[in-house]
Amino acid sequence: MAGGTGFTVNPRELTAAGTNxxxxxxxxxxxxxxxxxxxxxAAASLTGWKSGTALQRCxxxxxxxxxxxxxxxxxxxxxxxxxxxxxxxxDHLPAxxxxxxxxxxxxxxxxxxxxxxxxxxxxxx
Length: 125
Fold this sequence. Notes:
The chain has 125 residues and is mainly alpha-helical. It is 60% helix and 6% strand. The protein has helices spanning 11-33, 36-44, 50-92, and strands at 114-117, 120-123. The chain has a two-stranded antiparallel sheet. Strand 1 (114-117) and strand 2 (120-123) form a beta hairpin.
């Protein structure tokens, strides 16, 4: 609905964004693993100081948060790819067909001696 109140979806862009998010998320754990050694060395140089303990806790918390972010990015990226596939598949599905249903109001068409049954007029003449 370009130009309307809706939105336009480009499945290729959704797929690319999702794939990139999954790829970046996959690199985060390897990078956060590298935080441990420098943090440990810096904290060890501050042995006996409260800041050494605080630095160690900060490094651990930072790694934990980044690893959780990577998991969230991976999930979101996967959802974007799935969403893109859903849009593409929906474009290839046949149009929905209305099913016959009884008319609970006994609708009559003015000018016809007919009653609507299951979506089709029935002539009683």
